[in-house]
């Protein structure tokens, strides 16, 4: 894990609120895994001072490129959206523990809300490469925000879309949808990102059905090196004792059964 300057190959607005960036990763020495992230300097100016964390959205080994999908939220991401093709991006990473992909013959379930899909898309890409089928539930405010649906379908994933706009993204509707999917497919493992509400639901269902599940957690980060303790969360360790962990260092991916979701 170290800093590098990678050339931006494109940085385009893909919907009202989301941007998609492709960088040349040929200079990157480290192997990048789904679920890991980079801490990115959004501009050369003094403000925003802190780097911002972004998951890896797509890993293209053949082309030696990496892709990011990001929601323009505040100062950092607004500045990032101004970065132009040909400029270099100051990145630190890859950081953290990625997903453990089960390699049996079943299907994996992905449950993502909003920009959480940016984190799970790389996993769907890796699953497709290993011949593992994935089924995804994508939840968002509106259809406009369901950006990665086609990308996932391109990996052969079955995609179910739910939105606040259509009124089918509430917990009870998603519960029914998940029950239906679990009857239809032999779900071997489940992965989630982007919503505590949906993660709690998945935590309950996977515990009942004894399905292995993981969550990628997101929190404001400072150093992303495990030093500042800005991004802590509570987990129960394997003996069931409560423990405070750093999302940047011990995560961002954790076994879902261990995470305390408040
Ligand atoms: C592991 C991980 C992966 C992520 N992946 C993605 C992704 O793929 N796509 C995506 O869109 N988003 C992702 N996010 C969320 C993304 O990092 C935030 O949306 C982004 O940092 C917002 O920055 P901003 O300046 O635009 O917004 P703001 O809301 O303005 O920034 C956040 C605010 O919090 C402040 N802040 C940040 N860190 C701290 C801190 N440690 N202590 C105090 N204040 C702080 C900032 O200074 C800023 O004011 C991820 C987050 C994590 C933790």
Automatic annotation (TrEMBL):
<keyword id="KW-0285">Flavoprotein</keyword>
<keyword id="KW-0408">Iron</keyword>
<dbReference type="GO" id="GO:0050660">
    <property type="term" value="F:flavin adenine dinucleotide binding"/>
</dbReference>
<dbReference type="InterPro" id="IPR017927">
    <property type="entry name" value="FAD-bd_FR_type"/>
</dbReference>
<comment type="similarity">
    <text>Belongs to the PyrK family.</text>
</comment>
<protein>
    <submittedName>
        <fullName>Dihydrdoorotate oxidase</fullName>
    </submittedName>
</protein>
<dbReference type="GO" id="GO:0006221">
    <property type="term" value="P:pyrimidine nucleotide biosynthetic process"/>
</dbReference>
<dbReference type="GO" id="GO:0051537">
    <property type="term" value="F:2 iron, 2 sulfur cluster binding"/>
</dbReference>
<feature type="binding site">
    <location>
        <position position="228"/>
    </location>
    <ligand>
        <name>[2Fe-2S] cluster</name>
    </ligand>
</feature>
<feature type="binding site">
    <location>
        <position position="231"/>
    </location>
    <ligand>
        <name>[2Fe-2S] cluster</name>
    </ligand>
</feature>
<feature type="binding site">
    <location>
        <begin position="76"/>
        <end position="77"/>
    </location>
    <ligand>
        <name>FAD</name>
    </ligand>
</feature>
<dbReference type="InterPro" id="IPR019480">
    <property type="entry name" value="Dihydroorotate_DH_Fe-S-bd"/>
</dbReference>
<feature type="binding site">
    <location>
        <begin position="52"/>
        <end position="55"/>
    </location>
    <ligand>
        <name>FAD</name>
    </ligand>
</feature>
<keyword id="KW-0001">2Fe-2S</keyword>
<keyword id="KW-0249">Electron transport</keyword>
<feature type="domain" description="FAD-binding FR-type">
    <location>
        <begin position="1"/>
        <end position="101"/>
    </location>
</feature>
<dbReference type="GO" id="GO:0046872">
    <property type="term" value="F:metal ion binding"/>
</dbReference>
<dbReference type="InterPro" id="IPR017938">
    <property type="entry name" value="Riboflavin_synthase-like_b-brl"/>
</dbReference>
<dbReference type="Pfam" id="PF10418">
    <property type="entry name" value="DHODB_Fe-S_bind"/>
</dbReference>
<keyword id="KW-0479">Metal-binding</keyword>
<dbReference type="InterPro" id="IPR050353">
    <property type="entry name" value="PyrK_electron_transfer"/>
</dbReference>
<keyword id="KW-0274">FAD</keyword>
<keyword id="KW-0411">Iron-sulfur</keyword>
<dbReference type="InterPro" id="IPR037117">
    <property type="entry name" value="Dihydroorotate_DH_ele_sf"/>
</dbReference>
<dbReference type="InterPro" id="IPR039261">
    <property type="entry name" value="FNR_nucleotide-bd"/>
</dbReference>
<dbReference type="InterPro" id="IPR012165">
    <property type="entry name" value="Cyt_c3_hydrogenase_gsu"/>
</dbReference>
<feature type="binding site">
    <location>
        <position position="248"/>
    </location>
    <ligand>
        <name>[2Fe-2S] cluster</name>
    </ligand>
</feature>
<keyword id="KW-0813">Transport</keyword>
<dbReference type="GO" id="GO:0016491">
    <property type="term" value="F:oxidoreductase activity"/>
</dbReference>
<feature type="binding site">
    <location>
        <position position="223"/>
    </location>
    <ligand>
        <name>[2Fe-2S] cluster</name>
    </ligand>
</feature>
